[in-house]
Amino acid sequence: MNLLPLESLCVFLLPQVWLALGMQEIHADQETIGKISAAGQLMWCSASVDILFLLDGSYSIGRGSFERSKHFAGKLCDALDIHPGRVRVGMVQFSSAPHLEFSLDSYLTKQEVKERIKRTAFRGGSTETGRALKYILHKGFPGGRNLTVPKILIIISDGKSQGSTAVPAMQVKERGTTVFAVGIKFPRWEELHAVASEPTEQHVLFAGDASDAANGLYSALSSSICSITTPGCKVESFPCERRTLETEKELAGSYVCWKGSKQQNVMHASLCPFYRVKRVSVKHPSRCFRTVCTDPCDSQPCQNGGTCVPEGLDKYHCLCPVGYGGGTHCAPKLSLECGVDLLFLMDSSAGVTLEGFLRYKAFLKRFLQAVMGRDSPANVGVAQYDTSIRIPIEVGQHKDVFGLMKSIDALNFSGGGTLTGRALWYVAQHGFRRTPVFADVLDDLPRVVVLLTDSKSQDPVAEAAKYARDRDLLLIGVGSSFVRAELAEVTGNPKQTVVYSDPQDLFNRIPELQRRICSVNSPEGCQVQSLDLVFAVDASAGVGLANFLQLRDFVRSSSWQFTINRDVTQIALVAYGSRAHTVFALDTYTNNSALVQAINQMPFLGDVASASSALLHIHSDVMTVQKGARPGVSKVVVLLTNGGGMEDAAAPARQLRDNGVTVFVVVIGDAERDTLLRVAGSPSYLVHISSYEDLQRYQDLITERICEEAKSPVNLCKPNPCMNQGVCILRPGSYWCECHGWEGPHCESRVPRGFLQEPSLVTGQVLTAGESLFLQQGTGI
Predict the structure, then answer these.
(1) What range does the record give for the signal peptide (predicted)?
(2) pLDDT tens digits, residue range 165-207?
């Protein structure tokens, strides 16, 4: 016996599997197919009716298809209200002869019937469908009720009967029995149509899809026996196609054969034909009647671009885009509750391309739909720029989101050069118009400009951006990582940039942009805390030039985390080797951009490190009123070191702490922990980082710790605000300076000769912290 290789077996088996799965196809869209399947699972019949299953158990079916027939019968029972007074179910298996498996009065609950169907054993034999129908004519429905109860016969077979079925099938139907013919395996559809009740399109089904067949069966019964009470459901007709496999013979060729003749012992050579048998798929066009129920998603309940996902016939849930999900229908969960005048400045140049411009329009619409409620206090406008600048939507022009969306839809791509600097000049001068709220009251809301660009500017932006910021405009930049540096230059603070990694990521940034816009009313962290901060950087040979440059980058990026001006944060920078060098003092710079440029000029010293000389220098010559330190303001020193030269640093560090200055020690690499702890004063003020490459990862942690210190209570007399050996005397909520030979709020002016009086008579001025700060700034101290 020759065995076929595995590859040959696959050639024969795979097409059969595909055909078995595709014996019936309803021509409808995928959404409708899903609705048919969902409705089939929810069908229910609670009428008074007798149902008898007639299962084909012949060899042409085989054990596998017989098990599928049983599964189908069990699925149909799920939709039946099996009860002695309502639905009764029985079963007959047929092959060479019919066999009663169980009568209609044998089992009185659904669970019992389904368990009995599972235990039904395959019998095998020839396919005598006609003989099984004659059995029904003779025996009726065993255990059934009288003729007033409707009778339903469900034949599950491949339709390949070895005897005639036409006459007994007609006689069964003439007795008032409704006959359903359900195909299994590769059905012979013509015979199934011949035995089924009229109209046959409604009474011929396929068991391969149990939910679809259940739908078809109950759709046929809905008008007469099992009424469908589910609201929104109706029976519809669909074109469908049924298929089967049939055997065909075709001439394959001829071969030499020998034939006898009338003459004895004489043979003649001749050509004899030989045939090849093949199985072909045959199509049977028809119509299928199915119940379709309204989908809970048909009414499109999910708003703002949400996707509706049905859960049965009456429930659903919404998959909401970013910025939505505040309710079950994707209502906005963000809101611009902050009152601002908001102008979007959209790049419409050739640099962003038409695709990028349309993406920004879609983002702008999605953002405004997400955050703009009916009572939003924000006023919104839109400007476009390329080589020219125009404001098609004035700030506050639209009071409703619908009108705003229509105006945004009308924006057109223009192309041209990318003159971002020119656009910033223009919107700073003409982008916002002060409008009266009442007759004599002007609308004085904070003004915010959101720049949307993905193209580098062809003209300078720094001076224009500074001009806009000096006019109290909050600038926020939105763009890809390609323009990250330019956006930081425009905004003056990387924290005011929103950078996306890819086009889809842009839409994920909606919540971040909302927070940035509303931060104008409620700045976070150190932005609302007054702070005097000194960075002391180890620039010795022990650190090395490459690592020093990483320390300098860290100081530069950290400085962007603070708002630099005389009222909020002041930063000084000290580089040290064997001696300390002040790069700039606390009161040198009053904005972030200038300060960052100065950090870039910090020199590498390259000699032996001495942290003690750096801390002594900060105590005596940096963190002082003369060099810009402010009374009543939190003071922090951040020492960046590799741990070298720390031997004598504990004493000057303690002196700083005694004077109200917090000392953070940030050490990179291996170092003696006990020595470092003595300098920091507490483990809370010691940050150990394994390598210079990891330094940037600790930036947020270090900034957070500095900000926590900025919120701590301060002693108004530490460090001593009184100059020229004046004595600071603390009062509740204030202080005053007792001067000897000097006068002024901080003992800053020498008493002229001849006017020297007793110390108690010379001065004794009481100052609050605010007055002291004012006077300090006014006198240049």
Answers:
(1) 1-28
(2) 999 999 999 999 999 999 888 888 888 999 999 988 889 988 8
Distance CA(93)–CA(125), nearest Å, equals 11
Rounded CA-CA distance 391/387 in Å is 14
How far apart CA 244 and CA 561 sit, in angstroms, is 73
CB 156 within 8 Å of CB 195: no
pLDDT digits (tens, 9 = 90+) for 206-247: 887 777 888 888 888 876 777 655 666 788 888 888 877 777
Q: How many C-alpha atoms does 315 have within 13 Å on its Cβ side?
A: 2
Pull the structure tokens for residue 684.
Answer: 């809370």
CA–CA dist 305, 303 (Å, integer): 6
* Whether the bond into 199 is cis, omega within 30 of 0: yes
3-state secondary structure 707-754: HHHHCCCCCCCCCCCCCCCCEEEEECCEEEEECCCEECCCCCEECCCC
pLDDT along the chain (781 residues), means of 10: 35 32 68 73 81 94 90 88 92 95 92 94 93 93 90 91 90 93 87 90 84 82 68 80 77 77 72 80 82 76 75 74 63 67 94 92 87 77 95 89 89 93 94 58 74 94 90 90 88 82 84 80 57 94 93 89 84 95 93 88 92 94 88 90 91 91 92 88 87 81 83 79 84 80 84 53 37 39 34
Residue of 150, 147, 208 lying closest to 182 (CA atoms)? 208
Helix or strand (DSSP H, E) at 247:
strand 233-260
Helices (H), 496-578: 503-508, 510-518, 545-559
Q: With beta carbons less than 8 A apart as the criterion, state whether 82 and 74 touch.
A: no
pLDDT at residue number 772: 41
- By CB atoms closer than 10 A (0-12, 13-18, 19+), residue 718 is middle
Strand partners, 344: 382, 450
262 class by beta-carbon count within 10 Å (0-12 exposed, 13-18 middle, 19+ buried): exposed
Tokens representing residue 441 in the block: 């009251």
Cβ pair 207, 184 in contact under 8 A: yes
Distance CA 50, CA 141 (A): 8
Reported residue count of the chain is 781
Number of CB atoms found within 10 A of residue 582's CB? 18
Cβ atoms of residues 666 and 640 within 8 Å: yes
- How crowded is residue 525: how many other Cβ atoms within 10 Å of its Cβ? 17
Query: What is the rounded distance in angstroms from the CA atom of residue 667 to the CA atom of residue 638?
Result: 10
Phi, psi of 463 (to 5 degrees): -70, -40
Tell me the pTM.
Answer: 0.43
The enclosing H or E element of 674 equals helix 673-680
Is 518 strand, coil or helix? helix
Residues 21-43 as b/e (b if ≥16 CB within 10 A, e otherwise) read: eebbebebeeebbebbbbbbebb
Residue 5 CA to residue 7 CA, distance in Å, equals 5
CA distance 497 to 512: 10
Q: Which residues pair with 204 in a beta bridge?
A: 181
Residue with tokens 């099992």: 226
Classify 13 as helix, strand or coil.
helix
Nearest C-alpha neighbor of 624 from the set 744, 748, 768: 748
**Can you read off the two tokens belonging to residue 344?**
């979007």
SS3 state of residue 551:
helix
